[in-house]
TrEMBL record:
Residues 246-353 form the YoaR-like putative peptidoglycan binding domain. Pfam families: PG_binding_4, VanW. Keywords: Membrane, Transmembrane, Transmembrane helix. The keyword Transmembrane applies. This is Vanomycin resistance protein VanB. The lineage of its organism: Bacteria, Bacillati, Actinomycetota, Actinomycetes, Micromonosporales. It comes from the Bacteria. The chain crosses the membrane at residues 45-68. The keyword Iron-sulfur does not apply.
Amino acid sequence: MTLYGEKSPPADDRPTVQVTAVTWPVDESEPTAPVPPRRGHRTRLLVAAGAAVAVLGSVAGVGAYAYAGDVPRGTTVLGAELGGRSRADAVRELRAELDRRAAALAEPLALRVGERDLRIVPAEVGLTVDVAATVAAAAEAEAHPVSRLVGSRSVQPVVSVDVDRLHAALQKMAGDQGRKMTLPAITYAGTTPKAVHPKPGLALDPQRSAEVVRAGWLAGGPVTVPLLESHPATTGEEVDRLMKELARPAVAAPVELTTDKGSVTIAPKAIAKSLRFTADRTGKLTARVDVKRLRAALGDDLSSVEVPPKDARMAVTAGRPKVVDPGRPGRQLDTAGLARDLLAVLPKADGRVVTGTLAPAQPELTAEKLGGLGIKEKVSSFTTRFTGGLSSSRSHNIVTVAREVDGTVVLPGETFSLNGHTGERGYAQGYRDAPVILDGKLVPGVGGGISQFTTTFFNATYYAGLEDVEHKPHSYWFSRYPAVIESTIFWPNLDFRFRNDTEYGLLIDTSYTSSTITVSIWSTKIYDSVKTEYGPRRDITTPKTIYLTPGPSCIASSGINGFAQDAFRVIRKDGKVIKREKFSWRYDAEPRYICGQEP
């Protein structure tokens, strides 16, 4: 790339002022000429005074010339003469010079990053001369008075660049030359600590890259952008010290937790699950006790010393939402104190005892808070039907999950997760075997039927106008569900989640009969209506016939056509459509499964 060099300064053809020196007699001992008449003496004094005034006048004129304008005389930028100009004139002159150099300034800039030679287009990374800042620097730079008069100086232009865009471009060009920093870590396999020693990283530093590109753009020649090595703040030796002084001694013996309500033994296994060694972005490794994990590891052991707080509860009675349980405060361990004190005794071989303080614990939801959430009317409701009565395993599962969700309050801004709320839905939680879709066919599986509740629940939130966060329709369409507007679920991979994006709380109310399941959302109504408009079905496919080995795991089906379809959620408020959301899905054709050998 050809870059412009500096211009030779123009010949200085400005006038030079010469001042004649005046010598005054200073030594009275030297012989002197006869004293002239008084009039002549006065004449000489007047002449001398006149010469002095002339000198002072000349100097003043020179000073005025030298300091004229905002930019010192003799100042150039990229060869453009800016000296003696006002800032506004200097800006115009510099912009004119940049326009003359536009073609050269637009040429790709040659870079070397690591072992790769690259080129970037200045405009694509915001590389440009900051005209206003350059003129300001030229005007504010110090200049000696003599330099202002007869000297010259060149001021380097102020170059700006978009640091983020430059970094993104350099990263893409650099490819795999860098390496990520290996952060230090200590983890436990059971009660055996394992160390991960740190390793330095090699990467581009955004600010350093911008600095060298700004400095080298107008200098000519390729610009070398360095890959900088970054070392974790915690060294390998410090990791080994933490292993020796804390990680191993921590799980060498139990710790006794004493309270005024009794004692609890914290076993090494519980310690290993709660002692966390984490590194921040700089690679500084620190240890802490995660009390939440400690609680989970101790399980029911804490119930002997703690009384958990109980949230107030709301339910729909006589057609209205009411607080039916005011809740109660509890007494729980001071988690901050416990984490600090437990961490202090873990390195010790003896005296492994900590005293826990039981502090009052208020429930998250009080009756007063519930009363102020605006839960006052039914916003939406949705019902689906099932067969087999309440005695079937599938119906049992639907009712079981409905009871778990009933009465749940979702606060403003919160995201509700069905998997997160119920946890695993297995035999231990009271669920039974019923048909589920697995690998494209119906097979017996624990928790079958939960998808029908999920579809009902999804539709209730859908018609309440709530934000959809995660849902997935079934692979096959079942006529008991609305097309596209339905959802399956499977622990732990498939979830149903929605966000309460209103300013009011939500109450989830579930009810059932021997053949129906209903989910209603209670809150404050904010929309006139929420409706669905369907597009036509398209790309229809027909089912194929598949023969399966007869047996208890074989479930026959008659087959269903596959198709694609769009559904639009149309939300109206104040008589106007304020939102139109598109939901699309493609259903596979469900094969016709026959339990028997192919004829």
